[in-house]
Amino acid sequence: MMTTIPTDAARLRAAVDFVREQDSAALLPLLLPGLDGLELRALADRCRFSHAAVLVFPPTLAALRADLTACGLDGDVAEHPSVVVRDRLAARHGRDAAELDVRILRPPVPGPEGEPRCVEVFALAVPPGSERLAEIAAHERLRQHEAHLAFEVPRPDPLVLRGMRALFARHGAVADGGGYNPHEDGTVFYFTAPSDAKADYLRVELYVHGDHRDVLAAHLAEQSANRPAETLLRLLTGAWTTQALSTFAELSVPDAMDTEVAVAVDVLARAVGAHPESLARLLRYLATLNVVAGTRDGFRLTGVGALLRAESRMSMRPLALMYGGPFYRSFGELGHTVRTGKVAFDHLFGAHHFDHFARDPELAELFDRSMAASARMFEPLVAHPVVTAAAGAAGAAGAAGDNGDTGNTGAPRTVVDVAGGNGELLGRILTAHPRLHGVLLERPHVVEAARRALDAAGCGVRCRYQVGDFADVPAGGDVYVLSRVLHDWDDDRCRAILRNCARAMPPHADLLVVERVLPTDGSPSLATAWDLHMMCNVGGRERTADHYARLFADAGLALVDRSPLPLDGSVLHARKAAGA
């Protein structure tokens, strides 16, 4: 029996007719036949039918625009890259995503009441003679994997999105991928319609404006649960990703690339001293990770890849070199830690990582730069109420002195950064608040690097440097900071560090502790991965907020509040406990 496959033009016309005729209240029960009246009203109130989607394979985009015009649609409508469908096609057909230039066009189509809708046209141009692309086109035309109906959620809210996902699942819809498209700042959730659906489309999309990757993560995890072998295989190749990124950074390839214009592989190879074919294969893999983007002319850098440039303001290149270097090697000894409870890094290198780095100035500098590479975590800290209050008090005291009022001048307010590394955080605070002064406590070789950095930032004149360890916490400060320090140590050492801080703190002083806090509800968090990292490489750990509160209490401190920071960080605000 021969199966007649509709032409792209016929499928396009059918999608246009469907969009013109359907409405949300009638369509939802066709897609989810088990909906009761209350559920239908709740869904119809929170989402609206917005478009039907079709994937077509014109010889050129100009030919597609002619087809749109022939259907009575706007042939000049704007186009955008489709990240989600591109990646799905690449995964389904085992192809490099960089080879698939999938575009989205959304010509408007009015609904039955004149409401604004569209037909979403995904287009992968298949020029004559493109055999590999023609194979994809033939398969997709037959299977119609990407044809779907979409409902837009006009008032996105994480709680509503989770509830809608649960409702779809309860009525037999199965999570079927999705993604965040940065070109449009929109998040999509795909579902396979239940087997008893009565619509002609087998897939459903929820489209939400904005970045909702937190909810999307749960959606994709649900999809992965249905594909255990594929999921495990991808997890097992995670080490390849680390080394690919580290090599990319080590060879300084990002610094030879542009974010707007593609650079040919042979040009890049000459610039960085690499083997052209091997570099091309590395870039092809990185394109699947959205680190670079491939075009017919070569590769360009994405926003993700740009973070690996050496001179980028928020460069994460040092992290790539650390995670692909000494920490990569020590993670190979993770089994030793799990078997014995002893630190893998110490076992491999024969010394604690702080001592090991101290003996190697270049490695020590790389470590300090890698710590500073997560500086985005610090951005909100300069506006923390404790910091702004200290800055305000310093300003008031200075103004009083300027006015000749000697009764309220006082000393400048001081921020004490305990084990402050190369001064990245302290420099940000002092730069944002010119009336504050700072004290940085660190090891000898680190202090000199911090001095240079703070001088370069223009705030070194307001900073004092103290060489020492945790027993030497300077007294008399107004704000004390422990940034990513406590997670390096076991509970006993943390108590000792906190007691040293408490002894140095005047009664009015505040302590700000910056750490990744472990969630207690099992929700995804970088803290969970970093806990494993601390166990393997340092002998420390990440902790829950309650765990930190107990450590504070043991040191005579009380947890006042906790505020979120980027990169799954938190700032824990503590003060001296009453009567301490």
Describe the 3D structure.
GO terms for molecular function: O-methyltransferase activity; protein dimerization activity. It is a single chain. Helices cover 45% and strands 19% of the residues. β12, α21 and β13 form a beta-alpha-beta unit. α2 crosses α3, α10 crosses α14 and α11 packs across α12. It is globular, with a radius of gyration of 29 Å.
As a percent range, the share of helical residues equals: 40-55%
Mean pLDDT score, rounded?
90
Oligomer: single chain
Q: What amount of the residues lies in strands?
A: 15-25%
Biggest sheet overview: 9 strands, mixed
- Helical stretch count? 25
E-strand count: 18
Radius of gyration: 29 Å
Q: Uncertain runs with pLDDT below 50, 5 residues or more?
A: 400-409
Shape: globular
How far apart the termini lie comes to 87 Å
Annotate the secondary structure layout:
Layout: H1 8-21, H2 24-31, H3 37-46, E1 48-56, H4 61-70, E2 79-81, H5 83-93, E3 102-105, E4 108-110, E5 116-124, H6 131-143, E6 148-153, H7 158-170, E7 174-181, E8 186-192, E9 203-209, H8 213-225, H9 228-236, H10 238-250, H11 265-272, H12 276-288, E10 292-295, E11 298-301, H13 303-306, H14 317-323, H15 326-331, H16 334-340, H17 344-349, H18 353-358, H19 361-372, H20 385-402, E12 414-418, H21 424-432, E13 437-442, H22 444-456, E14 463-467, E15 479-483, H23 491-504, E16 510-515, H24 526-537, H25 545-554, E17 557-565, E18 569-576
Parallel strand pairs: 1-5, 6-9, 12-13, 12-15, 13-14, 15-16
Antiparallel strand pairs: 1-6, 2-3, 3-5, 4-5, 7-8, 8-9, 10-11, 16-18, 17-18
